[in-house]
């Protein structure tokens, strides 16, 4: 039995248990909607464009924030790895900032940018930047010294040294950082949209809660889970396999 088939059977079992339990529980639909009701709401939301528009807004925000976080994280990671003074000062601060949940920044974001897309984009970026910085720094530090000595022996230095030795050798660690950073930024986005509005899947969650439409809430939760699964299993897993094959770790 293949992995895909096992997953399909398992999900089907969960769906059947959910449907039977919701119908036999005696609870009102706004507290425990049946799976049939949830899928009706999901399909209607997709056809009407309500959920589709929210998906577009959320993906636009997270892609922009995540791209900024990658660039900033790689730059900061390089300087922390390259210079001892930066490691002792900025590196210490980044480690401390990583322990702060990104949603804690939201009050500051509202004061600085107002209750708009910029504040949501800010916490999405913050949610991934520190994790990306720490993993990039770790990746650069873990490049085998032998690679560095051989490259310098052949005259590699400066940007050429970073581009041809440091970055390629630290790619596996950076990819791990990307997966973790994506998860943090995705959670930060949902929290920001829940509190800040401005459309998006998080705002749909808040609307479903305020209207007592648990079928809408669960529909959005399913969409969030599907997007997260696709990104992790299709994008990052494929990149990771390609890197492993290139390095000869996986055939």
TrEMBL record:
Record key words, sorted: Cell membrane, Membrane, Transmembrane, Transmembrane helix, Transport
Cellular component annotations (GO), alphabetically ordered: plasma membrane
Chief location category: membrane
One Gene Ontology term from the biological process aspect of the record: transmembrane transport
Pfam families named in the record: BPD_transp_1 (PF00528)
UniProt domain ABC transmembrane type-1: residue ranges: 55-235
UniProt xrefs under InterPro entries: MetI-like (IPR000515), MetI-like_sf (IPR035906)
SUPFAM superfamilies: MetI-like
Localisation: Cell membrane
Segments crossing the lipid bilayer: 60-80, 92-114, 120-140, 216-236
Topology of the protein relative to the lipid bilayer: Multi-pass membrane protein
Family of this protein: Belongs to the binding-protein-dependent transport system permease family.
Stated name of the protein: ABC transporter permease
Source organism (scientific name): Brevibacillus fortis
């Amino acid at each position: 039995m293949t992995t895909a088939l096992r997953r399909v059977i398992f999900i089907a079992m969960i769906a059947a248990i959910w449907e039977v339990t919701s119908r036999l529980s005696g609870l009102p639909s706004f507290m425990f909607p049946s799976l049939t009701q949830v899928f009706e709401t999901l399909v209607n939301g997709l056809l009407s464009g309500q959920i589709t528009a929210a998906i577009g807004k959320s993906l636009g925000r997270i892609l922009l924030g995540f791209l900024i976080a990658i660039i900033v994280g790689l730059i900061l990671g390089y300087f922390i790895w390259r210079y001892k003074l930066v490691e002792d000062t900025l590196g210490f601060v980044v480690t401390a900032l990583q322990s702060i949940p990104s949603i804690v920044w939201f009050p500051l974001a509202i004061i600085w940018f107002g209750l708009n897309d910029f504040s949501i984009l800010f916490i999405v970026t913050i949610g991934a930047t520190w994790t990306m910085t720490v993993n990039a720094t770790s990746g650069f530090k873990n490049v085998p010294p032998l690679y560095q000595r051989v490259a310098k022996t052949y005259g590699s230095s400066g940007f050429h040294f970073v581009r041809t030795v440091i970055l390629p050798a630290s790619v596996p660690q950076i990819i791990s950082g990307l997966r973790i950073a994506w998860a943090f930024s995705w959670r930060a986005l949902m929290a920001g949209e829940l509190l800040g509005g401005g459309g998006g899947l998080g705002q749909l969650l808040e609307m479903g809660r305020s209207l007592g439409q648990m079928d809408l809430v669960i529909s959005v939760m399913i969409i969030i889970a599907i997007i997260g699964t696709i990104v992790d299993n299709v994008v990052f897993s494929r990149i990771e396999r390609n890197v492993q094959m290139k390095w000869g770790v996986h055939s």
